[in-house]
Amino acid sequence: MPEAASLTDKRMRLRYAGTCRVCGTELEARSVAVYERAMKTVRCVTCVPTPDADPEAHLHAVRQAPDDVASPPRRARSIDTAKDGHGPATDGPEQDAAEPDGPEPDGPASLRALPHGASVVHDAPAAPEEAADDLGVSVAGASARREYERRKTRDEQRVRDEWGRLAPVALFLRDEKQSTKAWVTGAVGEEKLGKALDARSGPDFRTLHDRLIPGSRANIDHLVITPSGIWVIDAKRYKGRPELRIEGGLLRPVTRTLMVGRRDATKLLAGMHKQLAVVREVVGEQVPVRGVLCFIDADWPLIGGAILVDGIHVLWPKAVYKLIGRTPSARFDIDAVHVLLATTFRPA
After folding, report:
1. Which of 126, 134, 193, 215 could share a disulfide with 235, CB 3.0–4.6 Å?
2. 252: helix, coil or strand?
3. Is this structure's pTM higher than 0.70?
4. Alpha-carbon separation of residue 15 from 18, 111, 112, 144, 332 (angstroms)
5. What are phi and psi of 293, to 5 degrees?
């Protein structure tokens, strides 16, 4: 049975699961298929494209299809760290198995589409220069600012509907709802931290901002990939002094409460642990993943103040930069991890 291919089609291993455009067969992740770049679809290696869907591809397939099935592709390259600690270690030149232009399912990439047990150390994503168009634009605080604008527009429309011709006066005199204002406050904090992180970006300091967690409406504020590992950073713009209150002992269970002023921020620790679990599921155990809660504009003391609770760092921006810089390096391919995270966690 022949494999049909147009001039732009490519035989490859699928990064994610898909469905054959021609016969409708479900194609599992890591299975060999043909990626049709012109239409951004996939098909079985044995299916010939239909003339009504792609006449040029069909004509080329009829003329060029071989008599026998193409030989199976060689084993995909491994990206285990090379001896120098940078760059993928390969078993030889292999193009088809590591083709970077593989299709992705509609919407954000899903962890469920990754093969069971997949790890960044064994399943190589595309090279950064080849997959740059697929990384998405990273804008810190973008989703929070969009939500603020949506709520602001909704609130103003309600005032117009209620006050009619007097709406301009009512809008001028009213105070913005706190539930709406909180979104722009958070957006400003994410933007400030994102700008500072981007100023440090380079070959050994990669940043991703405002990335959507697959299968959820939640997002990750900042992902930083450095030789020391992956840093998951949640930016918050709370007022007050951060402190860890420890109560109990002997006759009562010990409880730890993270406070910022009078505000109980303990739930942020649970949220960070969930983010860390999702990132670790993607990259595997061989790449260190650490969490940071960064409180911007908080009332930090002049001396000390850093908090470490349940393995999560609670810091101010400058302390975050210093922590990342002094943490020992790990052995993994930064470029590959950057691409993997960017294609899994799409822009929110």
Report:
1. 193
2. strand
3. no
4. 9, 11, 12, 30, 20
5. -100, 120
